[in-house]
Specification:
Layout: H1 7-19, H2 26-45, H3 58-73, H4 80-99, H5 103-113
Amino acid sequence: LEDEPSAFLLSHVLSPWGKCIEYLVPETVGPIFEKVMAKSIEVIRKMAPEEYKSKEIGLVCDLLMSMKLICTGCGNHFTKQDAKGMDKMRLQEIEKMLKTSHFNARMNALNETL
């Protein structure tokens, strides 16, 4: 990932991998996902407040859910604390969405809590 990808792009890239992680060989894909996961966390943490007003803000929670699935599926490369960290980060993002004044972000956050 040479250029700076958006959280929305990363969500589209990682979502299929998260759904089929149980069919992949962890020893093969684990090292690749380590780099992508680190970059994804960095991108999510750097998100600007304006990005929370986007109609696609729900994809951030989808990205974090895919990242959690990858953490649990590649057991040798990620720990249970990594998966718990994804849950914690997801809750932090939901909290940020609830704090914005944008209606769409708040509704996506409420949908994520259900």
